[in-house]
Amino acid sequence: MMRVVLPYHLRTLARVDAEVQLEVDGPITLRTVLDGLELRYPMLRGTIRDHVTQQRRPFLRFFACEEDFSLESPDTLLPEAVASGVEPFLIIGAIAGG
Asked: For 80, which of 24, 31, 72, 93 is 20 to 30 Å away at the CA?
């Protein structure tokens, strides 16, 4: 079982605590994690990725084991520590401004 930490606004929308647990079949990639998250919490569809292009929404970043995966391919394998649930997969709301 893997763990996903959501930013406050997505936690509110999904009505969950800071961390959710997901059971993902097959290889643990960015795509399978986000697919599993949207399947379990349908209200999050379109909030993390664009409906049509499936591209990451601006101002959201993905981190695993202190490494930024935001610009990686959706089929990039996540570290074993994330896949096993030892470390969480983080979806972070980026902050813009000066």
From this structure: 93
d(CA 19, CA 15): 11
Strand partners, 60: 93
Residue 95: pLDDT above 90? no
Domain ranges of the chain: 2-93
DSSP H helices, the chain, are 8-14, 30-40, 80-83
Decide if 64 contacts 90 (C-beta within 8 A).
yes
- Give residues with Cβ within 8 angstroms of 73, minimum separation 6: 30
Residue 92 has φ and ψ, to the nearest 5°, of: -115, 135
CATH of domain 2-93: 3.10.20.30
pTM: 0.91
What letter represents residue 42's amino acid? P
